[in-house]
Amino acid sequence: MKSLTKTAVACAVSFAAINAFAETQITVATVNNGHMIEMQKLTPEFEKQYPDIKVKWVTLEEGVLRQNVTQDIANGSGLYDVMTIGMYEAPIWGERGWLEPIDTSGSYDVDDILPSIRGGLSYDGTMYASPFYGESSMVMYRKDLAEKAGVTISDRDSWEDIRNAAAAMNDPENGVYGICLRGKAGWGDNMAFLTAMANSFGARWFDMDWKPQLESAEWKNAVSFYVDMMGKYGPPGASGNSFNENLALFNEGKCGMWIDATIAASFVTDPKQSKVADKVGFAQSPYSKTEKGANWLWSWALGIPAATKNAEAAQTFVRWATSKDYIKLVGETNGWGAVPTGTRQSTYENPKFQKAAVFADAELKAINSANPNDSTLEPSPYVGVQFAAIPEFQAIGTTTGQMISGALAGSLSVDQALKSANRSADRQMRQAGYY
Question: Once rounded to an integer, what is the mean pLDDT over residues 4-24?
Answer without folding.
Answer: 48
